[in-house]
Amino acid sequence: MIITIDGPAGAGKSTVARQLAQRLGFTYLETGAMYRAVALAVHRAGISPSDEAALAALLPRLRLRWQDGRIFLADQDVTDLIRHPQITELARQVADSPAVRQYLGELQRQIGQHTHLVTEGRDQGTKIFPHADCKFFLTASPEVRARRRWEELQRQGFSFTYEEVLRQQLERDQRDAQRSLAPMHPAPDAILVDTSQLTVEQVVDLLEAHVRRRLPVQGIALIP
Ligand code: C5P
User: Residue whose CA is closest, atom 16 of ligand 1?
Assistant: First the structure.
């Protein structure tokens, strides 16, 4: 069974997806971490994110692995390194590459073949798992999302102003929504959830209730 959670940065997808997966006993997949890990590898290799041939040559050598909520490049756990603002920006650029999208899309589908999955990103319900059993699209007002991101950056020790974070986020949202390949938009059959006024627990409760109402699908037992 596949559950997809898409939406813009700061809508709370990662936390919600992780907790929902935990409650259901499903595997959790954060596809943004995959794009970020590729961006880190691109940065390390000194490649331009628009050099499609260089990207295509790099991808098979990456040994990218998602395991238990952590992301690895070769055998190095890069889960924390990929949160750097420079990598955030590069990830957005790398995500425009057809080679990268195809490579990561295949990896994501492979993971979905072997396990019950809660997967989150921008294109999971539209492009990667169009036949998912349950689809959600999480949003929140731009101000709420920027505040959440700003608070996260503060905790990490970065001294951006709230206004800078809001401006960068609006730019990133616009580019994610307008990219020619796999632009971010809700799948027609996705349930829209505005998280602006909700706590994480309320959002997870809401999603879990939807999933359990639609299920049990034949032969799948959820954790009670
Ligand atoms: O969600 P997160 O901010 O970690 O994603 C990093 C970047 O990866 C986003 O800016 C977006 O451009 C890209 N992305 C994507 N498709 C996904 C997940 C992330 O294009 N499924």
Answer: 122
In the chain, the domains with their CATH numbers are 2-206 (3.40.50.300)
Total Cβ atoms within 10 A of residue 147: 16
- Output the CA 110–ligand 1 centroid distance in Å: 19
| Residue 181: predicted pLDDT | 81
Question: How much is the pTM?
Answer: 0.92
Residues 6+ apart with CB under 8 A from 208: 20, 23, 24
Cα 172 to middle of ligand 1, angstroms: 10
Question: Mean pLDDT, to the nearest integer, of 51-71?
Answer: 96
Q: How confident is the model at residue 217 (pLDDT cuts 50, 70, 90)?
A: low
Ligand 1 binding pocket includes 129 (Cβ within 6 Å): no
Q: Which helix (H) or strand (E) holds 77?
A: strand 76-77
